[in-house]
Amino acid sequence: MDEIKLVSFDVEGTLVTPDFSYSIWFEAIPQRYAERNGIDFEQARKIVEEEYQKVGDQRLEWYDIKYWFGKFGLGVPNLAMKRCQGRVCYYPEVRDVLSSLSGRYKLIVASGSPREFLRHLLRDIEPYFAEVFSSISDYKQLKTSDFYLKVCQAMEIQPEQVVHVGDNWQFDFVAPKEVGIHAFHLDRREKTNHQDSLMSLAQLETHLLG
Ligand SMILES: [Mg+2]
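^ thats the input. predicted complex w/ magnesium ion below
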């Protein structure tokens, strides 16, 4: 791993637990929807979840908080997101790993979350990163191999000099590997024997720093 110059991180499920997003999608939005429409929370949650499923996670709207607030007639999302700020939670090893890797490598974020989310999700760790890329907000696409190429171009670096880590098999492992990035799949739930799989970011640190 001598040639590695840059380490790229996914955000949700990798640096940050799903709690903040969960509180937006499954608590704040149904709560507001219930208030607006004079129905109870459980009813609202069922309706809202059905609408999410109709769109599905392969379409860009799925990730677009403004789209959903607009669709449900809930105004703008800013205040609701601010109220959920306390739910942002980093995995226990994150700060130590970022702090130790930042001495040796340039660190960036390559996320599928929109900027509205990243602003909150990264609030306490943003200084570690030289750049933050959002595939949705910056390039209007999911994390495809093309997205990773554009990130490398923007950073003026060869894919072979980049390590990316994230918890989604397709978006964080298959796609970056297609363009020659060294990718690691993070699976926090399972002990795995796959040589490119990690159970925590501490293992990435071991891979890189030995
Ligand atoms: Mg993720």
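The beta strands are 6-9, 106-111, 131-134, 162-166, 182-186, 197-198.
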